[in-house]
């Protein structure tokens, strides 16, 4: 279902437990737990995410999370609806800057776990084809994110 890659940061069991908990919930919520879809989660440094952001988005600054989906939303929806997963498919990659997670948790005055969970859920829904640039897209994506966090009992406290 997923692989965790550490780039320039220390491996932590806490991170792995959070990733497992969040992605299990996401896969169950979207009814893809019995598919052969997999995600690569890359946990990294500000320097490495800035480099990826510049290379792939031509934006030369540090960001918190980047998502690289392998499917267009319609194609993925069709594959899920038809159960068309004969082979292992990569849903996509999520790159998370762990230092930004720490900084934003402090800035928003909630726990590191809540911020990390949110980054994972947010990245997951981008891989599922959701976006938040236009308001009509945001109203579809945000409730999905909030439901996962609520189901996991991860609050803003």
Short description:
The chain is of the alpha/beta class. It contains 6 helices and 4 strands.
The H/E string reads: EHEHEHEHHH
Which CATH architecture is right?
3-Layer(aba) Sandwich
Looking across the biggest beta sheet, what order are the strands in?
A: 1-2-4-3
CATH class: Alpha Beta
Helix content range of the residues, please? 40-55%
First-residue to last-residue Cα separation: 30 Å
Approximate shape:
globular
CATH fold field value: Collagenase (Catalytic Domain)
Gyration radius (Cα, Å) is: 15 Å
Key terms:
157 residues, 4-stranded mixed beta sheet, 6 helices, 52% helix
Folded structure, characterized:
With 157 residues, the protein is α/β, with parallel strands linked by helices. The chain has one domain: Collagenase (Catalytic Domain), CATH 3.40.390.30. It has helices at residues 13-29, 46-57, 73-82, 98-107, 112-127, 135-151, and strands at 2-6, 37-44, 65-69, 89-97. The chain has a four-stranded mixed beta sheet. Helix 1 (13-29) packs across helix 5 and helix 4 (98-107) packs across helix 5. The two termini are 30 Å apart.
């Amino acid at each position: 279902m997923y692989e965790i890659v550490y780039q320039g940061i220390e491996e932590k069991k806490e991170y792995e437990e959070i990733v497992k908990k969040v992605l299990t919930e996401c896969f169950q919520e979207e009814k893809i737990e019995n598919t052969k879809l997999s995600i690569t989660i890359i946990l990294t440094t500000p320097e490495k995410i800035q480099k990826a952001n510049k290379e792939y988005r031509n934006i030369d600054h540090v960001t918190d999370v980047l998502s690289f989906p392998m499917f267009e939303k319609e194609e993925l929806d069709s594959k899920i609806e038809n159960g068309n997963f004969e082979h292992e498919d990569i849903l996509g990659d999520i790159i998370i800057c762990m230092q930004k997670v720490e900084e934003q948790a402090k800035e928003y005055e909630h726990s590191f776990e809540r911020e990390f969970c949110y980054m994972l859920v947010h990245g997951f829904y981008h891989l599922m084809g959701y976006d938040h640039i236009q308001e009509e897209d945001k109203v579809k994506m945000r409730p999905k994110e909030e439901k996962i966090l609520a189901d996991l009992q991860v609050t803003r406290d």
